[in-house]
Specification:
alpha/beta; single chain; 10-stranded mixed β-sheet
Length: 597
């Protein structure tokens, strides 16, 4: 029996004391012989109990520790060291708490290595595991280098660089070790070189940590935000190899070292809290991060500047001449929407190599037909007719067959252009190697978020991440405000190479005529090894109702449920965990909130 299941008697006692009505409901179902239903009621009630996540974390921490201890008895398992660098001006009391936390992690660490700047105050601690390296180091990265050399000399495989103001959780090292023991790489596959976990933000005014549950490794997101360095473990040998490469004197910060490791070595996320950090510390000044990204990317980046909340914003260069883009707008009547969208594309967009394909799905209103005739006089505009029942996939595939540009941009007719560089921003991302679809940040007319990437599995289907978050608010660790990977992006504004679009067969006309065809397209691109990107550098207004009620109108419900079933069966969305949506987050909500455990 696992430690988790052993918690159930305590949970029942808590139910009796704190939620007696849930306890009585559980007892009723048990009397009726419905044990599974009774257990489900317990699980649902437990999620809302105080400190439920803490109890779960403690239970899995003990399990991780048992796995590591069993391996150590057999002389197996990875060997860890912890490193802490003390700078001048660091609070001695804070440093003392940090070092004490490293002494409480159990037998997994071979050494606790301390480096320091000249003049830094080094607290005195009992315990032979703490080793203060004698030579003063001018920076944290210099101290890290010295600690890695020492770790190799004493036979350690991994080094955990701990911020001097952070704490190592009780089971932090066990989490890393147990993961490596549970998940050995397949034969012939490279060993992981960098592990990182989740963070618990602690505060004097908060009874329990605020959890930063992180996505899987994302080579694009790590350029926008350092979500790794405060809760990571470095494989000693590969880290020393990267430090010795001599790139302008080697990496100048831990963040730069992580960027360089991630360029060509395996990086893995483990779903455990591996560091306790100060609340709000993730928002720190990103000036040094900008320097690190510039050093790593060099000429591969055009502009780089501070993003919100300590993040990094950058733009990749456009070739000269830039690639051509065919913007496809499907429409039927509603001339007030079409005119606003078309004028924005033709008059308010600064991209120089553009043509517009308007796919008319059997418009009958005279004003709409008259407007299309007028705008077709612009040599950049082509009108194609689709006089058939509405089928979003078929309309766009038909229009795409008339395109001759290198890229296709699917654009809803209710999109309003508010920034001239939106299309340039999409193309800059799409021109990078291995990119599939690129999507924009879409705002409702009240400037709250309508789309900031699509997460698979939300609602057992797919949902818009961070929907309804007010513009500019950090939300869940600013993830709506940074360029990053995404499982999918909405077809309301989606840029994709015509070559890739054709290679996956375009949109699914038969199974997904109206709903989820954009999600399906993006997942087909990922299946081919391509990466989809969400970028807030392209921001537009989407004049869509905040309600998705149209899909649930009686005349559409049967069709919608049929297409939902196609998506669920084709992509297993009732079970899959999106790489950018942690298993500890609530699958029932598009605004990111923690589930339990």
């Amino acid at each position: 029996m696992s430690r988790i299941s052993q918690q159930r008697p305590m949970d029942l006692l808590l139910l009796v004391g704190l939620r007696p009505h849930h306890f009585m409901a559980n007892l009723w179902w048990r009397l009726l012989g419905k044990k599974l239903r009774a257990r489900a009621r317990i699980d649902a009630a437990i999620k809302g109990l105080p400190f439920a996540h803490a109890r779960w974390a403690h239970a899995v921490g003990i399990e991780d520790g048992e796995i590591v201890a069993a391996a150590e008895l057999d002389g197996l398992g990875p060997v860890f060291c912890v490193h802490c660098h003390i700078a001048r001006g660091d609070d001695p009391a804070s440093v003392r708490r940090t070092l004490r936390s490293t002494q409480e992690h159990g037998p997994a660490a071979r050494g606790i290595l301390v480096t320091h700047e000249a003049g830094a105050q080094i607290p005195q601690l009992a315990g032979g595991a703490v080793t203060v390296l004698p030579t003063a180091c001018d920076s944290r990265i210099e101290g890290l280098h010295a600690a890695l050399v020492k770790a190799r000399a004493i036979g350690a495989d991994w080094l955990v660089p701990l911020d001097s103001a952070s704490l190592l959780p009780r089971h932090g090292l066990a989490a890393y070790g147990a993961y490596l023991l549970r998940q050995p790489p397949p034969a012939g596959a490279p060993e992981p070189t960098l592990l990182y976990g989740d963070e618990g933000e602690i505060s004097r005014f908060r009874a329990k940590p605020k959890l930063w549950l992180k996505p899987q490794w994302d080579p694009r997101m790590i350029l926008s935000q350092d979500y790794v360095s405060r809760a990571c473990a470095l494989a000693v040998g590969p880290a020393l190899d990267v430090l010795a490469r001599g790139n302008e004197g080697g990496p100048q910060s831990l963040y730069e070292l992580i960027l360089r490791i991630g360029e060509d070595m395996p990086v893995t996320h483990i779903p455990r809290i591996t560091a306790l950090t100060s609340e709000g510390g993730w928002r720190r000044d990103g000036t040094l991060n900008i320097k690190a990204v510039r050093r790593v990317l060099g000429a591969r980046v055009d502009e780089i500047f501070p993003g919100p909340f300590g993040t990094v914003a950058l733009s990749f260069p456009l070739p000269d001449p830039p690639p051509t883009v065919s913007v496809i707008v499907a429409t039927r009547d509603r001339v007030e929407l079409l005119r606003n969208c078309v004028e924005g594309v033709l008059r308010a967009t600064d991209y120089p190599a553009i043509d517009l394909i308007i796919a008319d799905n059997d418009s009958v209103e005279p004003e709409a037909l008259r407007y299309m005739e007028e705008v077709s006089a612009d040599p950049r505009v082509t009108i194609v007719r689709w006089p058939h029942p509405f089928n979003y996939s078929a309309i766009n595939n038909f229009a795409a067959s008339h395109a001759r540009s290198e890229f296709l941009c699917l654009l809803n007719n209710d999109i309003e252009v508010i920034e001239p560089h939106w299309l340039s921003a999409l193309v800059r991302e799409a021109m990078q190697p291995g990119i599939g679809a690129v999507g924009a940040r879409l705002l409702y007319p009240d400037r709250s978020i309508q789309h900031a990437g699509v997460a698979i599995g939300l609602g057992n289907a797919a949902g818009h991440a961070h929907r309804a978050l007010p513009e500019g608010q950090p939300g869940y660790y600013a993830q709506a405000l940074i360029a990053r990977g995404a499982s999918a992006v909405t077809g309301a504004c989606l840029l994709v190479s015509r070559r890739h679009f054709e290679a996956v067969g375009g949109l699914d006309e038969d199974g997904l005529a109206v709903a989820y065809n954009d999600v399906d397209l993006c997942l087909k691109l990922r299946e081919r090894g391509l990466t989809n990107i969400y970028t807030p550098a392209a921001t537009l207004i989407h004049h869509e109702s905040k309600s998705r009620g149209l899909d649930f109108d009686p005349e559409h419900l049967e069709r919608y449920m049929r297409e939902l079933k196609v998506l669920q069966e084709r992509w297993d969305t009732t079970r899959v965990v999106d790489p950018w949506h942690h298993s500890g987050l609530d699958r029932g909500k598009e605004v990111y909130v923690r589930s339990v455990p």
